[in-house]
Amino acid sequence: MSGPTNTCAAALFVLDSNVVINFMNKTIGILPGANNAEKPQYFVSVVTEMEALAKPNDTEKERKDVQALLSKFTIIPLNDEIKKLAIEIRRAGSPRPKLPDAIVAATAVTLEATLVSTDEKLLKLFWPGLQTIGI
């Protein structure tokens, strides 16, 4: 298996849940590719959407702010290709990821996009075609 790389695939980015949440909390000021001349495309897995909206104790305003941010990204639903690949990654990825992380990684591989995360374990995931960038 090939390992993660820090190169950005054609300005396509899949944002992990921690990136979306940290961007909302303003602990991340800018997303990768935002300063490029090419307009980057940002995607989030339906898992990221769910995790961002499922934070306990959020106020109604905070939930609306999260929904407004998520509306700027293309949300990728689970399909058979992503499900099958996520299962393979969960079973054989190294280090073995949790299922939500495997789904997010499978989404990035399927889209041929770079996975953006702050999760060190996810950034170390080895899987063919998986490109990562940490922020």
Mind explaining what this structure looks like?
The chain is an alpha/beta fold and 135 residues long. It contains six helices and five strands. The chain has a five-stranded parallel β-sheet with strand order 3-2-1-4-5. Helix 1 (17-24) crosses helix 2 (46-53) and helix 4 (80-92) crosses helix 5 (99-111).
Summarize the structure.
42% of the residues lie in helices and 15% in strands. The protein has 135 residues and is of the alpha/beta class.
Descriptors for this entry?
5-stranded parallel sheet, 6 helices, alpha/beta, globular, 5 strands, 135 residues
What letter string, H or E per element, gives the SSE order?
EHEHHEHHEHE
Q: How many E strands?
A: 5
Lateral strand order in the biggest sheet: 3-2-1-4-5
Largest sheet: 5 strands, parallel
Name the structural class.
Answer: alpha/beta
Residue stretches low in confidence (pLDDT < 50, at least 5 long) are 1-9
Amino- and carboxy-terminal Cα gap:
24 Å
What is the mean pLDDT? 89
Number of helices: 6
Q: Could you tell me the strand content as a percent range? A: 5-15%
Rg of Cα set: 14 Å
Q: Helix content range of the residues, please? A: 40-55%
What sort of overall outline do the alpha carbons produce when their principal axes are compared? globular
